[in-house]
């Protein structure tokens, strides 16, 4: 049983408390999902539980994490560079269990994930694997270690649809307590039976947490219903208070008028009016005490609020992409042949396929063609944000073109709409969370007036609270979208056409 007692976490750089007096018990059978907006401390909490040294450089903590005798299996959100530079065999050999497992046991760790057992002995660099293959390899190594508790940071990132279904089944049937972070609403809805919600309210000055032992969808519905009831009651009480205040002001005004006009020759009348005014003042104090006891209006951490302008459009019938490629290769391997893709007007298409099929490689080739065009304004959100963002620049510097004061003010306003604090706007990109980097790229596409978007897993680092907004923005976007995604809600709600990448090219996927 994993226990957390009165844990408080403070960010060193801006001295901001991101979690306060947090207590939680992860029981056998719990599949607890950590949700919240980007930068609210979800990944930091997982790292701290697993190994406090992982956060020592940027956060400090008070409280207690009780994990005596437990073997923890931890999946990081991003594989460290040191891991990417190792061969697959070296990476697997770091697990003490690897050398002790028999071939059938290694197969049991690999096959359900769609990996060939021979991969474990490969001299391929881990960094050359696809995003999904990296996640699968890490999950396989965690399974080899036979942990007592699973701590998973975005386990669904970059997984293909088939492996996502396997992951859901695994989480539901593995019998291990799981604490995980995910932005995949479908995965959360299908697996979580406990919700741990981290928030930063009052403009990110007050941390708040909630533990709800119920499915995610029920939690969201009850939370929204509770807020609606609270707001209705708060507004009713404020309406009653205003009526009382109006009545009180009339009485007070009348008594003040009578006091001003009472004759000095009538001392008895003056005494009576003083008593009357004392009673009026006492009534006013009662009203103020009642005001302090009124129901508070709901204080929530809102999702992002952004959208593309009307100028970011592509006319119907305009050829956005007429792409053909005889042979798609990477790492000395031919991945696919005979690829054709035609996109017109404001079409929104998604490419799906198994991990390692070459989807991201194909998207990079498509992006090269589109970014070179001057008849469209194309922008790209790559799978690896480091390909598009300078880690040394701040968020404001990343979005700046002219460096003027007016531009900086505009940028800060937009960053505020993306729920950046004033301090976070001055953090280097390297210090931002994956979700904050995704927001930065999304905002850059908006400010640049892009009308053609090339997106590799665009929703994977937005919170479950912000993802509905992102899907709505992209659905109403007047330009074209060429994307790779395994997000089932994104595919269903945003994309009009879906293609599966196979060894023989792109095949249309029938829509339900």
Descriptive notes:
With 512 residues, the protein is an alpha/beta fold. It folds into three domains: 2-223, Rossmann fold, CATH 3.40.50.300; 225-292; 319-508, P-loop containing nucleotide triphosphate hydrolases (Rossmann fold, 3-Layer(aba) Sandwich). The protein has 17 helices and 17 strands. The chain has a six-stranded mixed beta sheet with strand order 5-6-7-3-8-9, sandwiched between helices. Strands 13-14-15-12-16-17 form a six-stranded mixed beta sheet, with helices on both faces. Strands 2-1-4 form a three-stranded antiparallel beta sheet, covered by helices on one side. The longest helix is centred in the middle third of the chain and has 46 residues, at 216-261. The model has no long low-confidence stretch (mean pLDDT 86).
Distance between the termini: 44 Å
Under the CATH scheme, which architecture of the largest domain would be assigned? 3-Layer(aba) Sandwich
Shape: globular
Low-confidence stretches: none
What is the CATH first-level class name of the largest domain? Alpha Beta
The quaternary structure here is single chain
Radius of gyration: 29 Å
């Amino acid at each position: 049983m994993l226990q957390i007692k009165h844990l408080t976490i403070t960010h060193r750089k801006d001295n901001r408390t991101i979690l306060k007096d947090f207590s939680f018990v992860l029981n056998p059978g719990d599949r607890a999902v950590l949700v919240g907006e980007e930068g609210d401390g979800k990944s930091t909490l997982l790292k701290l539980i697993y190994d406090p040294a992982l956060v020592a450089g940027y956060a400090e903590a008070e409280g207690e994490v009780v994990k005596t005798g437990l073997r923890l299996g931890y999946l990081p959100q991003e594989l460290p560079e040191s891991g990417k530079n190792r061969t697959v065999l070296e990476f697997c050999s770091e697990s003490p269990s690897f050398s002790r497992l028999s071939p059938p046991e290694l197969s049991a760790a690999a096959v359900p994930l769609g990996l060939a057992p021979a991969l474990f002995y490969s001299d391929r660099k881990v960094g050359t694997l696809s995003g999904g293959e990296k996640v699968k390899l890490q999950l396989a190594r965690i399974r080899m270690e036979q942990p007592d508790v699973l701590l998973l940071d975005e386990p669904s990132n970059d997984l293909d649809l088939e492996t996502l279904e396997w992951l859901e089944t695994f989480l539901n049937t593995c019998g291990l307590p799981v604490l995980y972070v995910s932005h995949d609403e479908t995965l959360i809805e299908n697996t979580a039976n406990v919700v741990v919600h981290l928030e930063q309210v009052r403009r990110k000055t007050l941390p708040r947490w909630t533990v709800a032992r119920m499915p995610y969808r029920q939690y969201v519905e009850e939370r929204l219903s509770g807020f609606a009831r609270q707001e209705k009651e708060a507004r009713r009480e404020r309406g009653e208070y205003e009526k009382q205040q109006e009545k009180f002001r009339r009485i007070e005004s009348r008594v003040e008028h009578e006091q001003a006009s009472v004759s000095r020759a009538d001392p008895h009348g003056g005494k009576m009016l003083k008593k009357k005014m004392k009673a009026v003042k006492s009534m006013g104090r009662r009203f103020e005490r009642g005001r302090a006891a009124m129901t508070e209006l709901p204080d929530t951490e809102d999702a992002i609020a952004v959208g593309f302008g009307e100028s970011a459009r592509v006319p119907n019938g305009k050829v956005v992409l007429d792409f053909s490629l005889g042979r798609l290769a990477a790492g000395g391997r031919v991945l696919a042949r005979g690829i054709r893709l035609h996109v017109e007007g404001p079409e929104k298409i998604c490419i799906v396929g198994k991990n390692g099929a070459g989807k991201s490689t194909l998207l990079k080739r498509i992006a090269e063609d589109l970014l070179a065009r001057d008849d469209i304004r194309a922008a790209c959100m790559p799978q690896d944000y480091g390909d598009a963002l300078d880690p040394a620049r701040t968020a404001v510097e990343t979005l700046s073109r002219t460096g003027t004061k007016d531009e900086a003010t505009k940028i800060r306003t937009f960053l505020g709409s993306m729920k950046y604090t004033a301090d976070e706007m001055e953090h280097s990109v390297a210090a931002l969370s994956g979700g904050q980097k995704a927001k930065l790229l999304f905002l850059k596409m908006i400010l640049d007036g892009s009308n053609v978007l090339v997106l590799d897993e665009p929703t994977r680092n937005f919170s479950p609270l912000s993802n509905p907004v992102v899907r709505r923005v992209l659905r109403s976007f007047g330009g074209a979208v060429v994307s790779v995604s395994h997000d089932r809600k994104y595919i269903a709600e945003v994309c009009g056409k879906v293609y599966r990448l196979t060894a023989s090219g792109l095949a249309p996927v029938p829509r339900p």
